[in-house]
Design brief:
The chain is α/β, with parallel strands linked by helices. It is built from six helices and ten strands, in the order E-E-E-E-H-E-H-E-E-H-E-H-E-H-E-H. The strands form two sheets. The protein has an eight-stranded mixed beta sheet. Strands 1-4 form a two-stranded antiparallel sheet. It starts with a strand and ends with a helix. The structure holds iron/sulfur cluster (SF4). Iron/sulfur cluster binds next to loops.
């Protein structure tokens, strides 16, 4: 298998969500089906990407950590996404996926040793996705019993309201993480004061540490 990738980072730290602080190998795939106003990985968008090709053997040799993060862009739209994660699992890797949640295939929920960080894109992202539609996309995946957690990026109070609406739509209890757009500490304080009590509030650790 030959893969189109943006970058491979042999060892960094998971800077967000449930596994924050865990050493992890990172694969960034090119392309995204959305265009978020605050996207911090625009260089992974297809039209801006300097993507390159790499063989699976070469890729595998550059992934020393047991935990491997597949991200983007939006990794699930990559034509080889499923082949990539199944091949890595075959090599004994535990796979973490960061996704905007708009392209989830129900079969993937049955894959073992997978952790799905779904980051629904709210009002301020500019994508105009309704939370009812988002709920319909995510709910079957959650119900299937996959290891799922939700990560919300918050810019303002409208975003917080939308996130609460989506949590009502999803119904099933899943771990929820909030982070302020661009690591804004004022927004962070506001979220802690105004967000739900049973969520967790994080800053992006990798950015604080000056890592990828
Ligand atoms: S879904 Fe993610 S990669 Fe795509 S535009 Fe939004 S923030 Fe950027």
């Amino acid at each position: 298998m030959e893969l189109e990738i943006v970058e491979v980072v042999s060892r960094t730290v998971q800077g967000e969500g449930k596994f924050i602080g865990t050493p992890i190998s990172l694969i960034r795939l090119p392309g995204c089906n959305l265009k978020c106003s605050y996207c911090d990985t625009k260089y992974a968008w297809k039209e801006e990407s300097w993507s390159t090709k790499i063989s699976f053997e070469e890729l595998k040799d550059n992934l020393p950590c047991t935990n491997v993060l597949i991200t983007g862009g939006e990794p699930t739209i990559h034509k080889d996404f499923e082949l990539l994660f199944t091949s890595l699992q075959f090599c004994g890797k535990t796979i973490h996926v960061e996704t905007n949640g708009t392209n989830l295939k129900r079969d993937w929920a049955l894959a073992r040793d997978m952790h799905w960080c779904i980051s629904p894109k709210l009002w301020s992202s500019g994508n105009g996705i309704s939370m009812v539609d988002y709920g319909n996309m995510i709910r079957p995946f959650v119900i299937s019993g996959a290891n799922v957690y939700l990560k919300f990026v918050i810019s303002d109070a409208e975003d917080m309201l939308e996130s609460l609406k989506l949590l009502q739509e999803v119904v099933h209890k899943v771990p929820v993480f909030y982070q302020p757009v661009s690591n804004d500490t004022e927004m962070y304080k506001w979220m802690v004061e105004n967000g739900p009590e049973d969520a967790r509030y994080l800053l992006q650790l990798h950015k604080l540490a000056g890592m990828v």
